[in-house]
Amino acid sequence: MADAGESSDRKTRAYHPYQDLHIPIQNLYNLPTSPEYLFHEEATVQRRSWGENLQYFTGCGYLTGAILGASKGSLEGLKASEPGDTLKLRINRVLNSGGQSGRKLGNSLGVVGLIFAGLESGIIHMRGTDDLMNSVLAGLGTGALYKAASGPRSAAVAGAIGGLAAGVAVAGKQAIKRYVPI
Fold first, then answer.
1. Beta partners for residue 13, in sequence order
2. What pLDDT sits at residue 134?
3. Is the pTM higher than 0.85?
């Protein structure tokens, strides 16, 4: 650990663990402001691994779907209440409707995220390059695979929608990186 008076090439911030305890010990530590990696190879990689991608997209899809579905179902439960219903019956109707819709949409979007992550990782491995086209191709394949059981026309339309959605997401991410200072 570098001394408080030493300057180093890395950006650090001073940390005093005992400042709120009013203890006369004056220890200052220089903590790094950027992530530290155990191996040098980890610092050069700017992408999640395929397993991390799988968990990330599946979890985000499920969570988003569950929240949106529960909100939609709760509103439907509120609209379906009848004038003679007691408060307990209305609350039960809202909770049942929200839970059912949340599960359905959460599972659907979780599966979409799972397929997308698997296809994107496979495409990156097959092409050997990591560029924006991989996400668009994965979106195209995800839509087509998700709706494949509904027939070829539905699969083609869903594939086109998936490819467009992935393209818009990639373009939006690049625009945010470029124009929004974070």
1. 31
2. 93
3. no
